[in-house]
Amino acid sequence: MYLSKQFIQNKYTKWYHNIILKAKIRILPTEIYNEKHHIIPRSLGGNDNESNIISLTAKEHFICHLLLTKMTSGQQKHKMLKALWCMSWGNKWHKRYRIPSKTYESIRHKFAIEMSLRLKGKSYEEIYGIDKATEIREQLSKNNSGVNNPMYNKKHTKKSKQAMSIKRKGKNTGKDNPMYGVDRSGEKNPFFGQRHTEETKQHLSKIRKGKPNYKLRGRLLSTEHRRKISENRKDRITYKWYHSKYGYEKCIRTELIKKYPELNIKSSELSMVINGRYKHHRGWSLSS
Predict the structure, then answer these.
(1) How far does Cα 159 stand from its chain's mean position?
(2) pLDDT value at position 53?
(3) Is the pTM of this model over 0.90?
(4) Separation CA 154–CA 147 (nearest Å)
(5) Residues 257 and 238 sit within 8 Å (Cβ to Cβ)
């Protein structure tokens, strides 16, 4: 038999089989346009052997490919839909029958659904490879940057903002959010163990300068809040400490406090040492 077990056994498979059998025992006149057809398509594992190739009229060829989409499932169905979709284009080398608009719409719709399911959740890198993905991203950025952006030098109206707000309300919240429950702390954070370069810091500072902090929504930070932020930022700096008994330590303040709990070291007092107001605290001084 000509057909592989990979095809679904249904009425469409029988029709396909009948067309193939009929074509095998006939001889087409030379004046009738015909096309070569792989009985088992190459994309499904078929070969170019003479036993797997048959001559069909353009109409029969199109019908066979239409039947193949109904004889397969999963990834194989996607391949057959793509083949059928390509056949409907037509070109200067092949004579193609004009298909009805409903058939065209049905093929296009099914192909779009299969393509969507196949690519869902995949990045450009997974689909096209790193080099092609980089090229696509650069082109998309170019096409949507500056004057090419449809919203360039424009602002959404109040009515548009309200419409977008209503449309998005309730979406991507809670368990519907793709990032819901995803732990990105510590080593799971993509930026873990990395630091911005000085060039990046200057760029971020430049683009943010003079712009309001939207997280505050018009509020001003209290003096106490500012003091805490200042203290936290200071604690990111590594200092070289010296103690006559314990020797040298190169660390931030909190690490020093945790390492020597018996000394009852206070963070605020270490700040005085850092600022030069105290020479030492609990025996700890800054080493030059």
Answers:
(1) 31
(2) 92
(3) no
(4) 11
(5) no
Asked which of 13-17, 27-31, 216-220 is least confident by mean pLDDT, the reply is 216-220
Closest CA to 59 of 37, 79, 29, 76: 37
Indicate the helix (H) or strand (E) that contains 240.
Answer: strand 239-243
For the chain, what is the radius of gyration of the CA atoms? 35
Name the H helices within 120-234. 124-128, 130-143, 158-168, 198-208, 223-234
CB atoms within 10 A of CB 65: 22
Q: Which long-range contacts (CB under 8 A, 24 or more apart) does 158-163 make?
A: none
Residue 91: pLDDT above 60? no
Show me where the domains of the chain are located: 11-119, 232-286
Q: Return the SS3 of 123.
A: coil
Residue carrying the six token digits 């990111």: 236
Range in 51-65, 132-146, 203-217 with the lowest mean pLDDT: 203-217
Per-residue three-class SS string for 61-112: HHHHHHHHCCCCCHHHHHHHHHHHHHHCCCCCCCCCCCCCHHHHHHHHHHHH
Nearest to 70 by CA among 60, 61, 80, 62: 80
In this predicted structure, what is the pLDDT of residue 94?
53
Q: Is 144 helix (H, G, I), strand (E, B) or coil?
A: coil
pLDDT 10s digits, 120-150? 878 888 888 888 888 988 898 888 888 888 8
Look at residue 196 and give its three-state secondary structure: coil
